[in-house]
Design a protein that fits this description.
By secondary structure, this protein is of the alpha+beta class. The chain is 17% helix and 48% strand. The protein has a single domain, classed as Phage tail protein-like (STM4215-like). It starts with a helix and ends with a strand.
Length: 129
Amino acid sequence: MASVASALRTVITAANITNITTKVYRDVAPDSETYPFVTFGDDITRVPRLLGDGVVKARVRNVSVDLWQLLDAEDTTLVESLLAAIDGANLVGADKTIFGCTVQDVGRAVLPDDNICQHSLSVNITHSN
């Protein structure tokens, strides 16, 4: 079985987002990769969600999903497509039972000197312990 993060990557690549398709990487994209692309950081935080009889039965894992584009070629439909693919997604094939996948926040940052635009999605995934 795959990890929770791998299940999320599968959802993103299956969405077949224009100019992204399979350009989805854990933490860092290869230096040779062209824009746009997506990176994700798994397990930013993991907190208890459901407790029963003093035992944690489920946790919420926070994952950062980042869309990287050239600022002078920014396409806002890409972040909307990424948001639509992830928010409420049914993540399957993971080594945990997944109860929900929710985008909590979307932020935008620019590095004008480098001509880079970054959209960062904060994603909460609730799963079995």
